Amino acid sequence: QVQLVESGGGLVQAGGSLRLSCAASGSIFSIISINAMGWYRQAPGKQRELVARITSGGSTNYVDSAKGRFTISRGNAKNTVYLQMNSLKPEDTAVYFCHMATTTDYWGQGTQVTVSS
User: Fold this and answer.
1) Which of 17, 18, 19, 61 lies closest to 37, judged by CA?
2) How does pLDDT run across 91-107, given as a tens digit for each residue?
3) 45 phi and psi angles, rounded to 5 deg
4) What angle (nearest 5°) sits at the alpha carbon of residue 91, between those of residues 90 and 94?
5) Span 44-78, pLDDT tens digits
């Protein structure tokens, strides 16, 4: 079994910053290749949406609302991914989920990000 473990969520005032981290653990030896890793979020009453994604080749894409404020990056270990979030807004409040795309999709348990106005 492969698990994605997220950390770094919390409560922050508008304009503040948070850094989310995600690392795969467990039977990672079973993963032949990672196509992409990313972060999704889901706010109450809304659908889950892609926030940022980075491919194995290093290509990135972001939801329009995150462009210029968030930065996704991968760690030295290819099974880790980070999301640096700056200039946070109340509308960024959501549960953030880490995602890893291989031949199987893996999801983290989610970490709450709350931005107060």
Assistant:
1) 61
2) 999 999 999 999 899 99
3) 80, 5
4) 95
5) 999 999 999 999 999 999 999 999 999 999 988 77
* β-bridge pairing 70-74 and 80-85: antiparallel
Which residue's structure tokens are 């995600």? 22
Other beta carbons within 10 Å of 19: 14
Distance (Å, whole) CA 97 – CA 6? 8
Locate 60 and state its tokens: 């990135």
- Write the single-letter amino acid at 103: T
Maximum pairwise Cα distance, the chain: 44
Give the torsion through C-alpha atoms of 8, 12, 18, 21, to 10 deg.
20
β-bridge pairing 60-62 and 105-107: unpaired
